[in-house]
Amino acid sequence: MDKYIIKGGKKLYGEVEISGAKNAAVAIIPAALMVSGVCRIENLPQISDTDKLLDILALMGAKVNLVNKTTVDVDCTDVYFNDKIFELTRDIRASYYLIGSMLGRFGAARTTMPGGCNFGVRPIDQHIKGMKALGATMNIGKGLIRAEAKDGRLKGARIYLDKVSVGATVNIMIAATLAKGQTIIENAAREPHIVDLANFLNSMGADVRGAGTDVIKVRGVDSLHSGTYTLIPDQIEAGTYMAAVAGAGGEIRINNVIPKHLDCISAKLAEMGVEIEEGDDFVTVRREGALHHTNIKTLPYPGFPTDMQPQISTVLSLAEGTSVVTEGVWDNRYKYVNELRKMGAEIQVDGKIAVIEGVPNLTGAPVAACDLRAGAAMVIAGLCAEGTTVVEDVEFIERGYQDIVGKLRGLGADIIAVSEPDGPAEKLTAVSAG
Ligand code: EPU
Questions:
Q1: Residue 93 CA to ligand 1 centre (angstroms)
Q2: Other Cβ atoms closer than 10 A to 173
Q3: 3-state secondary structure of 138
Q4: Which ligand 1 atom sits closest to the C-alpha of 93?
Q5: Residue 20 pairs with which residues in a beta bridge?
Q6: How would you write the pLDDT of the chain (434 residues) with one tens digit per residue?
Q7: Which residue numbers are catalytic?
Q8: Is residue 89 classed as helix, strand or coil in its secondary structure?
Q9: Beta carbons within 8 Å of 115's beta carbon, 6+ residues apart
Q10: Mutate to test the pocket of ligand 1, among 50, 163, 334, 396 (most ligand atoms within 8 A of CB)
Q11: Is the CB of 376 under 6 A from ligand 1?
Q12: Which residue blocks in 18-81 are alpha helix, DSSP H?
């Protein structure tokens, strides 16, 4: 799809099902490369990032079979290097997990520098430090990464991360799984998808302990075996629908969530005047009255997630009073503010700080999705705005949100996806049952 057309001002009502977690899926699919046997992955989100990772494994000889829309069997019994993957690995961030999984599986790795959303500099020095500590030589040049384990197998090591990094924690965990001896990762990231990856690896025969704390211990094993694993629900997708109803008003039930993972988001929305009730695996979110201003700082988990910053800032642009948002993870994650200004938002950005003066209304306008979460923020802005909003470059959104148009339509939103940029024949996407 090329763009979404949203007629704003409709409150949201109904129920929405949350898909499997993108950032767990994009770690677990590369990790499946290390398993000699069939990994059945359930609750897989249908998004372009996971499709590309499955294509990468298929190019490397894996047998990839979709059992149904959200279940895939991946058999990496016979896999090999294939430089044809480079076209795909350049496109996505999570391709850097192939460094860890190739080193684990082959004792060597050949991939490209990763792609992904542009939030300014996105170094991978902590990944490299980790692989070197495990005994790999790392050669990086001309956009390619070549790594080799001494004597063909990595060796466990104690690694202190200088920065809390999701990616480095995941990559080192993956690499250490088939290393000789024990690896200890200190100052590890604690996100839910780190725990999910550890559970996946353990269900295939690995020995990973401490995931979810800042010290993770991995005792290397000789091989991994077949198994079945169900991904956790996507914390950020759920948070995005919470923000959508907070902005547009109404009452929705969000199903297939782990409410504990949403605590940091629920707490801030409650401060803003949004009512939230938790069930065992759902939350109900209701907003009728005025939105209140608040201050937010993004931090590694269990802090407020940076991947919710654009969506919540969009809602704050409609709150009474002044809110201050501090981006504590990325250097440059406010590019979407220029787009929001086109809709009447009053936001001043100075480095990592955004000062938001709430306005009574946003007005529909043509805007672009600058990246995945910025794109979700534009959709939310369009739902809240008076008039029509056209969101361009929606391929960014489709990297990480399964059927966002169908799910929002199921909640009563007036949104369509259009495949021809200016053509007269506007085509509706299939509307999902949920
Ligand atoms: N950093 C370094 N050196 C490194 C790695 C990271 O300095 O070697 C810095 C980064 O520059 C950043 C901070 O550490 O300032 C955190 O980066 P992290 O490594 O945690 O991010 P990431 O693994 O590249 C993942 C998610 C992002 C999410 C961040 C933070 C994936 C594929 N991506 O990125 O998700 O923003 O963690 O939670 O898991 C998204 O889903 O929209 C998205 C961008």
A1: 9
A2: 26
A3: strand
A4: 32
A5: 233
A6: 799 999 999 999 999 999 999 999 999 999 999 999 999 999 999 999 999 999 999 999 999 999 999 999 999 999 999 999 999 999 999 999 999 999 999 999 999 999 877 777 789 999 999 999 999 999 999 999 999 999 999 999 999 999 999 999 999 999 999 999 999 999 999 999 999 999 999 999 999 999 999 999 999 999 999 999 999 999 999 999 999 999 999 999 999 999 999 999 999 999 999 999 999 999 999 999 999 999 999 999 999 999 999 999 999 999 999 999 999 999 989 999 999 999 999 999 999 999 999 999 999 999 999 999 999 999 999 999 999 999 999 999 999 999 999 999 999 999 999 986 554 444 333 322 22
A7: 117
A8: helix
A9: 89, 90, 91, 92, 93, 95
A10: 163
A11: no
A12: 22-31, 48-59
Is 307's C-beta closer than 6 angstroms to any atom of ligand 1?
A: yes
Q: For residues 300 and 330, what is the distance between their CA atoms, to the nearest angstrom?
A: 11
Q: Which residue has the tokens 């924690």?
A: 169
> What is the Cα–Cα distance from 391 to 367, expressed in whole angstroms?
5
Q: Are strands 12-17 and 250-255 parallel, antiparallel or unpaired?
A: parallel
Does 165 contact ligand 1 (Cβ within 6 A)? yes
Going by their DSSP bridges, the two strands 296-297 and 322-326 should be labelled as parallel
Rg of the chain over CA atoms, in angstroms?
22
> Would you give the DSSP letter of residue 260?
G
Query: How many whole angstroms from 2 Cα to the centroid of ligand 1?
Result: 27
Asked if residue 26 has its Cβ within 6 Å of ligand 1, the reply is yes
In angstroms, what is the span from residue 424 Cα to ligand 1's centroid?
Answer: 41
Residue 356 to residue 4: CA distance in whole angstroms? 26
Q: One-letter amino acid identity for 160?
A: Y
Q: Measured in angstroms, how far is the CA atom of residue 275 from the centroid of ligand 1?
A: 31
Cα–Cα nearest to 402, from 412, 391, 410: 410
Atom of ligand 1 nearest to the CA of 163: 14
> What's phi and psi for 270, nearest 5 deg?
-65, -40
User: Beta partners for 17?
Assistant: 255
Q: Which ligand 1 atom is the nearest neighbour of the CA of 92?
A: 32
- Cβ(194)–Cβ(211) below 8 Å: yes
